[in-house]
Write a structure and sequence with these properties.
Rossmann fold; binds flavin mononucleotide; two-stranded antiparallel sheet; alpha/beta
Length: 188
């Protein structure tokens, strides 16, 4: 029976939130558990962290482009989730949550999420007023109704020193949630 993430493949999606800096710690924790990590950055995510943050942890390869040149024989949005044990989007921006809830595949990460047949987890991160927005809450509820697991967000200090619920959960807590989902599903 599996009790750790050892030997699993985790696709880590990083979107455009200030909390993207915590995704580096998250990737490091996953690698420490001997998971293979495949990182996908959105265009906005790449404004906060770069491929260089993740390449040493992700086997040198970080994905940020749907239309690769030269074109690979299997499109990357199908290749990346192949054989993955989970897709984890952390941080998940309000924008990304909305696009996913609408079923859009308008960038690489959104298409990866739509193509994945493994568990999908999101760790939202945004200002508390965005998190409280009924449109965002509606989108999250819609994702939950489709089986997407939502980790957090936590309460606490936010960017700009505001306080409230919207802080991305701590990387350790996200890894614990991932472990529960993967270990739980394999022993069910
Ligand atoms: C400094 C800065 C911080 C931001 N932080 C967040 C955030 O924490 N959460 C969020 O949902 N959007 C945040 N945004 C807005 C997103 O970056 C924007 O909606 C972007 O389109 C998200 O794109 P993506 O979902 O494709 O990554 C921030 C924007 C800026 C300029």
């Amino acid at each position: 029976m599996r009790t750790t993430l050892q030997g699993t493949t985790i696709v880590l999606g990083v979107t455009g939130s200030i909390a993207a800096y915590k995704a580096g710690t998250l990737a490091r924790l996953l690698v420490k558990e001997e998971a293979r990590v495949r990182v996908v950055l959105t265009k906005a995510g790449a404004r906060f962290v770069t491929a260089h943050t993740f390449a040493p942890l992700a086997g040198g390869r970080v994905y940020d482009e749907m239309f690769e040149e030269p074109p690979p024989s299997r499109p990357v949005h199908l290749d990346i989730p192949d054989g993955a044990d989970a897709v984890l989007v952390a941080p998940a921006s309000a924008d990304f949550i909305g696009r996913l809830a609408a079923g859009l595949g308008d960038d690489l990460l959104a298409s990866v999420c739509l193509a994945a047949v493994c568990p999908l987890l999101i760790a939202p991160a945004m200002h508390h007023q965005m998190w409280a927005n009924r449109i965002v809450q509606h989108n999250v509820a819609r994702l939950v109704s489709f089986g997407v697991r939502v980790v957090g967000p936590a309460r606490g200090e936010l960017a700009g020193r505001d306080q409230g619920q919207g802080r991305m959960s701590e990387p350790e807590d996200i890894v614990a949630a991932l472990r529960t989902v993967i270990v739980g599903e394999q022993t069910a």
